[in-house]
Amino acid sequence: MGQLLTFNDQLLIEKYLPHNFLAEKMILNCLLINSECIENVISNLSVETFYFQNHQEIYKAIIFMYKNNLPIDILTFVTFLQENGLLQKIGGIKILIELIDQTPNTIYLEDYISLVKDKFLRRSLIKLGYELINSSYITNLSIENILNNFENKLFSLTSEIRSQRLFSSTELLNNILFELKDKSLNPKISGITSGFDNLDLMIQGFQRTDLIVLAGRPSTGKTALSLNIGLNIIKSLKLPVLFFSLEMSKEQIMYRLLSIEANINQVKLRTGKLSQNDWIRLNKVIKVISKLPIFIDDTPNLSVQDIRSKIKTILFEQSKLGLIIIDYLQLLQNSNSKTENRVQELSQMTRTLKNIAREFDIPVLALSQLSRNVENRVDKKPILSDLRESGSIEQDADLVLMLYNKSESKFNQTNNADTSIFITELIIAKQRNGPIGSVNLKFDPKKTKFFSMN
Predict the structure, then answer these.
(1) Which 8-state DSSP code applies to residue 413?
(2) pLDDT digits (tens, 9 = 90+) for 244-263
(3) Contact between residue 245 and residue 327 where contact means Cβ atoms under 8 Å apart
(4) pTM exceeds 0.90, yes or no
(5) Burial of 154 (0-12, 13-18, 19+ CB in 10 A)
(6) What does the buried/exposed string (b/e) look like for 196-231 if buried means 16 or more CB atoms within 10 Å of the residue's CB?
(7) Is the dihedral of CA 72, 77, 79, 84 positive or negative?
(8) Is residue 79 within a helix (H) or strand (E), and if so which, with residue range?
(9) 82 confidence band (pLDDT: 50, 70, 90)
(10) Residue 220: CB partners within 8 Å, gap ≥ 6?
């Protein structure tokens, strides 16, 4: 029968946890003989990264001296330890003598840091694994709480692994210069194309680490536009798209995709009242869509933690994603917080979605409702403050797009009732790295299809 880990078990685990004594010693040695190394080490290693207690105490003292602008060498360090009663805490003067016994090569400091960090992350994973085992035995803890807690801690470790070193201005400028030369030789938008040329011209496509918010009142075409964009990305760039539908079922989303691609009225499609030509087009489109890498998740009461888990699952299978679409923001749940008000919860969720975009290097397109305030104004053109529960959305989003149906006009190329087209203004209400403004798109609501204006 399984049991919780005992104190003795824990001691045994601690005794055999991965560590690298020599690498830790070399890092501390570098710090004492060359104070110019300190900034680099501090930006990469915390006190807990060191395995041995006396090494942690030595590192802690070095950090204190550095932050208080005290000169650091072996003599000043020993004096500091003596005056503050810390010499015995690190194991006495013999530990320091052993520490400086060898002269390390500071050229290899990055390698020493990597070795120590690797062992720290392995220790952290081992401890997390045992914590998960122990939590699983506690039956009054829900599975959801256990998994969410595990996921959050694992995410912190993942972020630690992916954290990058500091770059000098020289390195950054060289990278930018190389990028500019590439753009001049191969003119193209810097981000992922939306498929609408007039929009891409203004926003330079969707940038990979951006949180994009597409907002509008009900029935203005938010879902339709996001599906159009998703299809454009799949077809033009051959990149998979992940669609989280919190409002409509996956079957409803598939009907919309068929309507867009087959150019068939949704009502006709749902009722099955199709002409022979409709059936021919539909059969062709079904063969095409069945091969497209679009993944639809219609799980109700979805949380941002669930979204992160499912992204990881898809990435494990597909290796890359072009876009993540969430329809829509106000229906998301926050499993970590049940007591805060909705505005605070939404603030946490938008911040997490922005982190997800950065973590996975994928643009996140989140649909959002606009408040009823827009309906009470004479000028019904939406503005940023119309975002429902807006503060955090406006702050965290890199790009805010708003749909505004301006007018309706008739195009009679096909001489039938399906040609009623809305002129929709897509307002760029916020763009962190570019201009604001607007572009016009044509929208056929009966086929949920958007077109660029000629």
Answers:
(1) S
(2) 988 888 888 888 888 888 88
(3) yes
(4) no
(5) middle
(6) beebbebbbbbbbbbbbbbbbbeebbbbbbbbbbbb
(7) positive
(8) helix 74-83
(9) confident
(10) 403, 404, 405, 424
